[in-house]
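Quick start: what a row looks like.
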Amino acid sequence: MVNIINVLFVFLFSAVLVVFAFARIAAERYGKNVTVDALVVDKQRYTKTVYAHSSGAVKKTECNVTFLCSGKRKSFCVSEFSYSGYRINEKGKLTYKGSRLIDFK
């Protein structure tokens, strides 16, 4: 009897996690754009080596920009071209959807 209860508990807990995961994905994909006042507080550019079976080692550059909005820090991965346009301590309107940066003016 105890084993059945444990199995049911694990099954229900897993089902709840799956529902929350799908809800988060749906909110990010179909949710509304959010626009807030923001301040650029940090920029990071780093290069890492990625190994692919067919092409061997390839260097990949990733750029992140961190904003301070409503007392919280939000980081977004941006292109190298966009990265050069952001300035530390620059203020503006940040528009984003989930983890994707839409615009900063």
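That is the whole record. The two ends are 61 Å apart (CA to CA). The domain at 34-104 is CATH 2.40.50.660 (OB fold (Dihydrolipoamide Acetyltransferase, E2P)).
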